[in-house]
Amino acid sequence: MTEQTPDQVHDVVIVGSGPAGYTAAVYMARANLNPIVLTGSVTAGGELMNTTDVENFPGFPEGIMGPDLMMNMEQQARRFGADIRHEDATELILDRPIKQITTGAGEVLHSRAVVLATGSAYRELGVPGEKELSGHGVSWCATCDGFFFREQNIAVVGGGDSAMEEALFLTKFASQVTVLHRREELRASQIMVDRAKANEKITFVWNTEVTEVQGEGKVSRLILRDTVTGEPSALDVTGLFVAIGHDPRTALFKDQLTLTADGTAWVDGRSSRTSLPGVFAAGDVLDPTYRQAITAAGSGCVAALDVEHWLADNVPTDAAEVPSETTLNSPVPL
Ligand code: NAP
Q1: CA dihedral angle for residue 221, residue 226, residue 231, residue 234, rounded to 10 degrees
Q2: 1-50 confidence digits (pLDDT tens)
Q3: Which residues line ligand 1 (CB under 6 A)?
Q4: Quick check: is 301 catalytic?
Q5: Residue in 83, 95, 141, 226 annotated catalytic
Q6: Beta strands at 108-116 and 9-15: parallel, antiparallel or unpaired
Q7: Active site annotation includes 141
Q8: How far is the CA of 167 from the centre of ligand 1 (A)?
Q9: Closest residue (by CA) to atom 34 of ligand 1?
Q10: Per the database record, which ranges form the FAD/NAD(P)-binding domain (predicted)?
Q11: pTM of the model
Q12: Three-class secondary structure of residue 325 per DSSP
């Protein structure tokens, strides 16, 4: 592992690269804070890289493809000098004035401020067969895997916007898409519900949950349970797309920061300030409710402005060196 020389203390490192991370980077680069962005080695761009048309991000009257939107944001951040690295953060030490961020390459970065923009991860059903048949008929990404289900009968589980979007996208390939929802009422927005209901390839099965995914080497059958009567049933499909929401990605720092009851990073009011000085959160990782590209982008802007003010208030102008080990473990110098 290569330790950095002590005089390399960055102002801010951003961990994560969805709309929150890139927006924070744009603002902070324009404020001459020279942000480093650790985008993730395989997840650069975040969830929107797995999306098709984004129709509700303001400024794109014809809509824009999710990956194009994220590449635009990355380019915009680079234009102002953000140091964007397609690397993971593998360890964070946040409880000291100069935080340490270990990258997947083994480099240890030192930074006065850190913005956590790690987003959220696909939720799993947690039923037998799901993990075993993942990649063999069980998928979390229609845009990635839909192509493999040409002229097949497949199912989507979930009742939110993601489930509707996945189901609609999958009708381009599949002959029949069955949406399985555990209640009788969809959570998705009306426009998505209307589109899904108008599509003749999509059928809905209400009050139903998946209790098992079966198949020898690939999915062939789902075992279902009626959530009202408890009656079991079976559905023969060759694919199952799980679209039941996301959980905040907090594994890297959940033992160091206060979390909310929803498992998101706790922040102080409408700010991005977490329970640790110099540590800020942005995007889905703090948001159990809205989780839109535009709200994540707004949240990244909030974090950038908070970091800017915090650095101005907390870093003495002559503070250019990493404190000694003793100082590292002491409270933030004011
Ligand atoms: P979501 O809105 O939280 O919906 C999750 C759905 O999965 C709910 O219907 C939920 O059922 C169901 N569910 C959760 N856990 C389950 C389980 N263990 N078994 C079976 N079903 C389960 O998540 P989302 O659809 O991923 O959307 C997240 C956010 O992104 C939302 O704000 C959404 O509007 C946004 N989004 C927007 C678009 C768009 O505008 N084009 C596209 C995708 C996502 P219950 O309803 O019973 O709780």
Answers
A1: -10
A2: 454 454 699 999 999 999 999 999 999 999 999 999 999 998 888 888 87
A3: 56, 123, 125, 157-163, 165, 182-183, 187, 209, 244-246, 291-292
A4: no
A5: 141
A6: parallel
A7: yes
A8: 13
A9: 161
A10: 10-300
A11: 0.78
A12: helix
